[in-house]
Amino acid sequence: MSAVTPDQVHDDHHHHGPTGLMRWITTTNHKDIGTMYLIFSFIMFLSGGVMALTIRAELFQPGMQIVQPEFFNQLTTMHGLVMVFGAIMPAFVGFANWMLPLMIGASDMAFARMNNWSFWLLPVAAILLIGSFFVPGGATAAGWTLYAPLSVQMGMGMDLTIFAVHIMGISSIMGAINIVVTVLNMRAPGMTMMKMPLFCWTWLITAYLLIAVMPVLAGAVTMILTDRHFGTSFFNAAGGGDPVLYQHVFWFFGHPEVYIMILPAFGIVSEIIPTFARKPLFGYASMVYATASIAILSFVVWAHHMFTTGMPAATQLFFMYATMLIAVPTGVKVFNWVATMWRGSMTFETPMLWATGFIFVFTMGGFTGLICAIAPIDIQVQDTYYVVAHFHYVLVAGSLFALFAGAYYWLPKWTGVMYSEFIGKLHFWCSIIFFNITFFPMHFLGLAGMPRRIPDYALQFADFNALASIGAFGFGLSQLIFIVAVVKCVRGDGKKAAASPWEDAQGLEWTVPSPAPHHTFEIPPVVK
Amino acid sequence: MSPTFEKYFVPEPSKFPIFGSFALLCIGAGSVMWLNHTGPGPLVFFVGLATLIYMLFGWFGQVIRESESGQYGKNVDASFRWSMGWFIFSEVMFFFAFFGVLFYVRVIAVPSLGSEESVSVLWQGFEAVWPTAGPRAEEAFSPMGAWGIPALNTLILLTSGATLTWAHWGMMKDNRTQLKLGLLLTVLLGALFMGFQIYEYMHAYGEMNLKMTSGIYGSTFYMMTGFHGLHVTIGAIMLLVMLFRVMAGHFTKDNHFAFEAAAWYWHFVDVVWLVLFVVVYWL
User: Transmembrane segments in this chain: where (chain B) (predicted)?
Assistant: First the structure.
C-alpha cells in the first residue's frame, strides 16, 4: 500500500497506456467503461427498435404483408431479449459505472479489470444472440420468456440464445458484485450509507437482486439445454417433469428482473426531481426502505405471471395479494416525488420534463399492473395486448424515459457541453406523444381480446392497430433526435458546461469539472 | 482529512478481459456447433477453452504478483472479502434453483401426474411414487441409495473441512508444515471424493441402469450431483493453487485472504453436499 500526501484534489495526470481502439479494449477506467456500456446499449436499443418497427409494420393492417409468421415470432422474441438484456440493463449499468464512483467519492470501481470484462462479454453475447438469425431455422421464436416446451423444440438458434443468456448472466453477476463492493467499501470519508444519493441506494439493492436471480435464470436455461440435447425430462411430463416448472423457475428470476429494470430508474428520477424543484428529496429514508421493500417482495410474487396455468385458488390468492402489496412501497415513492415538487421552485429543463413524464406515464403502467395482479381479471387479459400495453408503459415510459432523463441530466458532466434545450425538449415531446399513440390503444385491443405475439388479427382490431403502428414509427424516428443531441455535445457544439450546470444540483459529481477528468477523487473528498 | 490516506489500487489497462471474452465466444459458438453436429464445433470449443485457461493463468498470476508485491492495501482486502462472499451467494442461488426444482417435482409435479383425473385421462396406470422416471418411462432403473458410497463421501467431505481448518490454524501459528500437510490432505480428500463420485456414476450407468435419460429422477440426480461435482473440482483446484503458493512461500499469518477465499468456497461446497445428501440420496 502507498501512503500519499494529498496535494491537489483533482489529479488528472498523465493518461498513459494504449491509445486508439486498444484503449477501449483494455481500459480499466470506470468512465471509459461506462461510456462503452451506454453506446452499446443504444446500439442494441436501435436494433431492438428496428425489430419492433418490423412487427408494427406487419400489424399495420390485417392479413400477412411483410414477413412470414415464423419470422414474426422470431422478431417478437428477439425484440424482447435484445431490449431487456441488451438495451435497458446495460444502459443502467453504464450509468452505474459512470456515476457511482463520482457520487460516493471513489477513485474507480472496486474491481476495475473485472469491470472491463463485464462489459466486453456483452458484445460477445450480442453476437451469439443476433447471429442466431442467420443459422438454419433462424433465431428462437419461443417468446422472450423461452417457455418450454417450445424452447425445447426450437432449432440451433435456441442453443445460441441459451449460451448468450449464460454469458450475459456472467456479465451481470460480475457487474453486480462490483457495484455492491464499490458502494459498501469505496465511499469517501463521511459518506455514510444514509447520506448516499438515492441512485446509489437503488443500484445497491438492484445489484443484490441481480446476484440473487441471474444464477436462477442460468439454471433455467441449463435445464432447457439438457432437455434439448442430453435427454433429461425436466419439462417433459412423459418423463415425470412439468413444462409449468419452467415457468416457475423463469419467473422466480423474471419478476425480480423487472425490478432490476425499474429500481435504478427510480434512483435517477430521485436525483433529478430535487434539482429542478430546488428542494431536498422528500422522505429520503422512506425512499430507501420502499426500495428495499419492493426488492424483497419481488421474490414472492412470481406466480402472478402464471394465473392461467391451473394453480390452486389459495396459491392464486397468495400471489395476488403479495403482488398488490407492492403497490404500497411504489406508492410511497410516487407520493414522495410529488411531495418533493410540492411548492418547489420548479423549472422544466429537459431532464425534468422526462422525469415528470416518467412519473405520469409510469404510474399509469403501475395501475395497469395492479389490474393485471387481480387474478380474475388477469385470466381475462392473460396474453392479450393489455399485457403488452402494461409492460411497455413501465419499461418504455418507466425505464427508458428515466434513462433519457438521466442522460440529459449528466450529459454536461460527461461531455463538458450543454445539450441543446430545443432538441432535448423536441425529443421529449415527440417521444411522449408518440409513445401514448402507440401503446394507449393497446389497452383497448387487449380488453377487446386481441392476443399478443400474432402476425395477423381479426378485422375489428384494424383501426387501433393502424394507430399504434403510426405511433410506433413516430416514436422510433423520434429517438434519432437523441443522436443529434448527443453528437452535438460530443463534438463540442454548444455552450460550455460549468462544473455544476444546474442551479441547485446536490452531490459530489457536481464538484468535479465538466467534462469529468479521466481520473477523479484519487484523493477522497471528505463529506460533512 | 487525515494527512495521509491509503490509495486504492486501480489496475493499469489489461489485455486479459478481451481474451476472456474471446474465449467465451468460442466456447459458446463451439458448443452450439458441436451439439448440432455442424461445422468445426470441437475445434472452436477447445480453442476457446485453451484461451480461457491462458486468460485465467495470466489474470490470476498478475493478481498474485500485485498482491505479493504489497500493492493491495486494507481496502482492497476488504473488497475481496465482500466480493467472495457475494460470489458464493450467487452460487448458492444457482443451487437453490435446482433444489427448488426437486422440491416442485416431488411435491407438485409427480403427484399431480398420478392424480385421479390425470391417470384416468392421460397417463393410465401411472403410480406417483418417488423415485420415478415418469409415466412413459422406457426402461426400469434402480435409484441410488444413501448409505453406501454417498455416506462415505459425506464423511470424506466433512473430514476435508476439518483438515482445511487445521491447515488454517497452521497458517495462523506460522506453522508452515501443518499448513502444507493440512492443505495436501484436503486436496487428496477432495480427489478421493471425486474418484468415488465417478465410480458411483459408472456403477449407476453400468449396473443400475440409472442414466440422465431415466426420467425426472435421473435428470435431477445427475444435474444436481453433477454440478456439485464440478464445484468440488473447482474448489479442489483452488486449494491446489493455494498449496503451490504456500510452497512458493506466499502468504503471511496476517495476509492470506486468497487462502481464506478458497476455504470459504470449500465449506460452501461442503454445505451444498450435506443438503444434497439429505434430499437427493436419503429422503
Answer: 16-36, 43-64, 84-105, 146-169, 181-199, 220-244, 264-282
